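Supplementary Methods. Inverse-folding protocol.

Structures were first reduced to a discrete structure-token string of length 135. This string, shown here, constituted the complete conditioning input.
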């Protein structure tokens, strides 16, 4: 048995006109869940490279990484999985629905906390809200 499945993602955020912030969640039809944009690392890819690639692929937004957030560790299909996370500010982009991600939502942090399908994802959201939004 090999080691854990390695993945990475971001708590993607943007500023609102009233100086608040919104957090991006994506809906994956395969799992019918709402989560942060994330995905498995490609061979030879660093966790940060993978996180930035996955955000762009899943949301259509390039992003600027900031603070490192807690790593998520859980079982997925009976295998250990480790997902590295960063806070990342969204750049200009356009979401295009696809087979992997069919919906995207920009939500207030509290609404995002409620909508997250996996309670464990709240650890990353809480760490993002407690720490600096950018480095």
């Amino acid at each position: 048995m090999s080691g854990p499945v390695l993945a990475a993602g971001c708590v993607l955020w943007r500023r609102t006109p009233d100086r608040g912030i919104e957090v991006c969640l994506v809906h994956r039809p395969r799992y019918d869940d709402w989560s942060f944009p994330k995905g498995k690392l490609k061979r030879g890819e660093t966790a940060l490279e993978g996180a930035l690639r996955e955000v762009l692929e899943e949301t259509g937004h390039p992003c600027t990484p900031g603070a490192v957030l807690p790593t998520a560790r859980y079982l997925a299909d009976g295998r250990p999985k480790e997902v590295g996370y960063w806070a990342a500010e969204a750049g200009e982009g356009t979401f295009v629905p696809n087979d992997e991600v069919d919906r995207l939502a920009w939500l207030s942090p509290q609404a995002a906390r409620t909508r997250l399908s996996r309670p464990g994802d709240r650890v990353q959201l809480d760490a993002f809200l407690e720490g600096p939004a950018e480095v």
